[in-house]
Automatic annotation (TrEMBL):
One of its GO terms (cellular component) is plasma membrane. Belongs to the binding-protein-dependent transport system permease family. CDD domains: TM_PBP2. It holds the Pfam family BPD_transp_1. The lineage of its organism: Bacteria, Bacillati, Bacillota, Bacilli, Bacillales. GO terms for biological process: transmembrane transport. Coiled coil: none annotated. The chain crosses the membrane at residues 62-81, 93-113, 119-140, 161-184, 217-236. Keywords: Cell membrane, Membrane, Transmembrane, Transmembrane helix, Transport. This is ABC transporter permease. PROSITE patterns: ABC_TM1 (PS50928). It is a multi-pass membrane protein. It is found in: Cell membrane.
Length: 252
């Protein structure tokens, strides 16, 4: 309860400062709208269904892209984790690819798929695949050697060893990779949609900017931030903590 009060209090202070800056006229109204006007834009966007349609499209793009990113990232991570030669040759390039900002992939996506939804999904896939692969690779490398030795002593080798020992031991790192893949994919989604022909939150953001609707711009930014925080804290953070506790990596 105390934490919730602190967070609400901080939000009230931020909104208060926002209103004060608006009242002092530091910026023009068209550039820096009041909290009340942004609240009105939020209500208007949900009331007429525009934001709901944009959210539906964005979540569709995210589901397709993130699902593929998890699949590809897991396969690549397992390959690098199990093959020393592959890791030594391709591992460095994977780190380089992961460091590339998602917005950089947008021109390539447009050249390949045009201004279509496939281009957006392509950017999302690239945004989440590499960070997922790196975490899965780390997970495989982090399996305690004594567990592998003990399993081999009892006659478990090859594929049974992988499924019975290495995968269960890798689950905590896999969950961390899943959480990071979501975060990177969500950012990549917005980057891809900004330069798409819609629909989606990113497209709605650019559309509002083109028509100088700063109240809508800020409203959409708030929606993007709130969704990112809520999904991370309510879904992935809790899931990760539960797994960590079950594996004895966190105090209960």
């Amino acid at each position: 309860m105390n934490l919730a009060i602190k967070r609400i209090g901080f939000l009230v202070v931020v909104v208060g400062i926002w209103q004060l800056v608006f009242a002092l006229g530091v910026f023009e109204d068209i550039v820096f709208p009041s909290p009340m006007k942004v609240g009105g834009a939020l209500f208007e966007g949900f009331a007429d269904g525009d934001f709901i349609k944009a959210l539906g499209a964005s979540f569709r793009h995210l589901f397709m892209g993130l699902s593929l990113a998890i699949l590809f990232g897991t396969v690549i991570g397992v390959l690098l984790g199990k093959s020393k030669q592959s890791d030594e040759t391709a591992g460095m390039y994977l780190i380089a690819l992961q460091s590339i900002p998602s917005i950089v992939w947008v021109p390539l996506a447009i050249m390949l798929f045009g201004f279509s939804e496939f281009a957006v999904v392509f950017v999302v896939v690239l945004g989440g695949t590499f960070v997922m692969a790196l975490n899965v690779r780390t997970a495989i490398h982090s399996v305690p050697p004594h567990l592998i030795r003990a399993a081999r002593t009892m006659g478990t080798n090859g594929i049974p060893l992988f499924f019975r020992v290495e995968i269960p031991s890798s689950i905590p790192y896999f969950m961390t990779g899943l959480r990071l893949a979501w975060a990177f994919s969500w950012r990549a989604l917005m980057a891809g949609e900004l330069l798409s022909n819609g629909p989606g939150l990113g497209y709605s953001l650019r559309y509002a900017q083109d028509y100088a609707r700063m109240d809508q711009v800020i409203a959409i930014i708030i929606i993007i931030g709130v969704i990112g925080a809520v999904v991370d804290q309510i879904v992935f953070s809790k899931l990760e903590k539960n797994v960590m506790k079950r594996w004895g990596l966190l105090k209960t």
